[in-house]
Amino acid sequence: MADLELMDRGYGAIMRRIVTTAEAPHFTELAAELDIEIAEARDLIHDLVGVTPGWTHPGTDYLASFPPFNLQPTQYRVTIDGEQRWYAQCGFEAMAIRWLVPGQEVRIDAPCLCCGEPISVTLHDEDLIVIDPPEAVGYTASQVGGDAASRPFR
Amino acid sequence: MNLFRSEEHARRWIQYDETMASSLKSVAEWATIFSNPIFRERGRSDYLSWTRSDAGVAAYAALRASLPQPQV
User: Fold this and answer.
1) Beta carbons of A86 and A69 less than 8 angstroms apart
2) Longest dimension (CA), chain B
3) ipTM for the whole complex
4) Do A87 and A69 form a contact (C-beta atoms < 8 A)?
5) Is B3 in contact with A119 (Cβ distance < 8 A)?
């Protein structure tokens, strides 16, 4: 595992890139930004997804999920200050995106998994501005963060 | 970890599991849980180091305590 200082730099570089562009850097780009060897950057991506908790596409070094964002489209479309370019890892993480874009409005649009009808939630910093429909709920059939024995924040 | 238009809709979901009924919460309640410092501090340049600090460990503990557990 990479040292903590490098983990911090790598985490910050990936998160900034996703917030700015809705895309994750390839490990060759990460290597250039962090001024490290390419192989080290590739390993760093795997180290980071193990603690975030995110994941790479199976069998590859491509970032697929880096919470609160998903690089692969999900049903949770995220609009930041009027621009829909992002996807959330899940319906709950969607509500944490606002902390990465202070002062900006975050809108989450998703279909209900039961009926396919729309759900919309708009947040702005501390404020929950719109919940449509107002009786919308969150639910998970699995434990948040995965099993207690394996989640990073056990 | 999904959103539904109402509690009834969640209970009709094909993957609904009654043992996790405690996770059925309003959007506002989930928004509060995901306001824990673990989520708020993600923009820090030293975020992963911070998660290992006293403040980060305390935030993790508070988050764990707020998460629904399966009812067996």
Assistant:
1) yes
2) 43
3) 0.94
4) yes
5) yes
Q: How far apart are the first and last CA of chain A?
A: 19
- Residues B37-70 as b/e (b if ≥16 CB within 10 A, e otherwise) read bbbbbbebebbbebbeeeebeebbeebbeebbee
Strands A63-66, A55-56: pairing is antiparallel
Q: Chain A contact for B28, CB < 8 A?
A: yes
Chain B residues in contact with A90 by the CB 8 A cut-off are 1-2
Query: In this predicted model, what pLDDT tens digit does every residue of A85-122 receive, in sequence order?
Result: 999 999 999 999 999 999 999 999 999 999 999 999 99
Say if residue A53 is preceded by a cis peptide, omega within 30 of 0: yes
DSSP, collapsed to helix, strand or coil, labels residue B69 as coil
Q: Using N-to-C axis directions, what is the helix angle for A27-34 and A38-51, rounded to 10°?
A: 100
Tokens of A143: 């434990």
What is the Cα–Cα distance from A94 to A90, expressed in whole angstroms? 6
* Overall pTM surpassing 0.90 (yes/no): yes
